[in-house]
Write a structure and sequence with these properties.
By secondary structure, this protein is an alpha+beta fold. It has a domain at 13-210: Ribosomal Protein S5, domain 2 (2-Layer Sandwich), CATH 3.30.230. It is built from eleven helices and twelve strands. The radius of gyration is 21 Å and the shape is globular. Residues 4-11 have low confidence and may be disordered. Bound molecules: adenosine-5'-diphosphate (ADP) and magnesium ion. The site of adenosine-5'-diphosphate (ADP) has 16 residues, from strand 5 and helix 3.
């Protein structure tokens, strides 16, 4: 299901192969090539819609788009992944629901920019991405952020990163129809090599926090369980509802305003389940702040226990883990990882395991064996490192 690693650009000077392919498809050279990364959330899960803190980082897997402005309002789109061929559309009748398949991501960005008054031109666009699809690494935002960077540059619209974050959110929410927040595109647009992106979801402020795995002798393993449980959508909605109920009963605007020290009192005011949901969010916010502090001081080797505690909280209090994620996390820990947690919305998707480089192979082997023994799907295991955000590469 995953696209092969960087199929067009492996061993090639940046973008050159993509430009050649573009010329073959569209009979002319692209005006430029832009890339934007996927992301991994290091810590801070289900805190975003509670106006809390998240700490994602941009990864070394990117979507690249080669783009050429057209003299009319037509849009021609081609991805190196899948077999849809060139999809033609027009900017004149773009509206939510009008696009199908992967083209809703680039077209959604163009629609959102038009809504903002940007004079979006017709384009020919070739996409090549090595962000795995649907693994919780935000392959969709990687596309959107590459496209918005391209159009921002090509039109001279001069949008600031924060404006691009909001435009891509509009594209996802109103055009694609996915109720996502601002974390993924903030990481993709504002990420920086060797850093995590500390994002306050209340005021949308971003601060880059040093996060380098290699100098600390560590690798970040992603274990994609390849499972997606059918109750994911309902589970997400019900968790959100619990958080809203908790905030209402506790008399705060959002759970962001509840501190760990308030939990004892909250326990007396909330029903058992709502209390556990609230406790996850409140303690998770505290863990993000502690992680930021540790990364700025002792470094990544010190955050393992916070990753573990985050997973336990999601498993026991927020109840969004699943047997495959628990097995990935437990096995990684038992075979040498210094910390591990599920990442993303839950009920499937991927786990991350911060692992000494010397233990990488034993973690890989142990997880593969444990999944085979449990007769689970073969997991996809790979490393990611904190990489640069969206930019023009040619
Ligand atoms: P995630 O963003 O977590 O990877 P989503 O379901 O939000 O998962 O986005 C996955 C979708 O993005 C795919 O179904 C596909 O439509 C689109 N997509 C991602 N990468 C590519 C690609 N290289 N080519 C075409 N479409 C892609
Ligand atoms: Mg997505």
């Amino acid at each position: 299901m995953n696209p092969p690693a960087d199929p067009l650009t492996a061993n090639a000077p940046a973008g050159a192969t993509l430009a050649t392919r573009f010329r073959q498809e569209f009979d002319d050279a692209p005006d430029g090539i832009w890339q934007a990364p996927g992301r991994v959330n290091l810590i801070g899960e289900h805190t975003d819609y509670n106006e809390g803190f998240v700490l994602p980082f941009a990864i070394d897997r990117t979507a690249r788009v080669a783009v050429r402005v057209r003299p009319d309002s037509s849009v021609r789109l081609l991805s190196t992944y899948g077999d849809q061929g060139v999809v033609s559309s027009s900017l004149d009748n773009l509206e939510p629901g009008s696009a199908k398949g992967w083209t809703k991501y680039p077209l959604g960005v163009m629609w959102a920019l038009k809504q903002r008054g940007v004079d979006v031109p017709g384009v020919d666009l070739l996409l090549d991405s090595n962000v795995p699809l649907g693994a919780g690494l935000s392959s969709s935002h990687a596309i959107e952020c590459a496209v918005i960077s391209a159009i921002n540059d090509l039109t001279g619209a001069g949008l600031q990163p924060q404006e691009m974050v909001l435009a891509t959110q509009r594209a996802e929410n109103d055009f694609v129809g996915a109720p996502t927040g601002i974390m993924d595109q903030s990481a993709s647009l504002r990420g920086s090599e060797g850093h995590a992106v500390f994002l306050d979801c209340r005021d949308q402020n971003v601060r880059l926090v040093p996060f380098e795995t290699q100098p600390a002798g560590l690798v970040m393993l992603v274990i994609d369980t390849k499972v997606s449980h059918s109750h994911a959508d309902g589970g997400y909605a019900s968790r959100r509802a619990s958080c809203e109920l908790g905030a209402e009963v506790l008399g705060v605007k959002a759970l962001r305003d509840v501190q760990v020290a308030d939990l004892a009192e909250a326990n007396g005011l909330l029903d058992v389940v709502t209390f556990r949901r609230v406790r996850h969010v409140v303690t998770e916010n505290a863990r993000v702040l502690q992680t930021v502090e540790l990364l700025a001081g002792a470094g990544p080797a010190a955050i393992g226990s916070l990753l573990d505690a985050s997973h336990a909280s999601m498993r026991d209090d927020f109840e969004i883990s699943c047997p495959e994620l628990d097995l990935a996390v437990d096995t990684a820990r038992a075979s040498g990882a210094i910390g591990a947690r599920m990442t993303g919305g839950g009920f499937g998707g991927a786990a991350i395991a911060l692992t000494p480089a010397s233990a990488e192979q034993s973690v890989r082997d142990a997880v593969a064996t444990a999944f085979a023994d449990a007769r689970y799907k073969v997991p996809d295991i790979f490393t990611v490192s904190p990489a640069a955000g969206a930019r023009r590469i040619a």
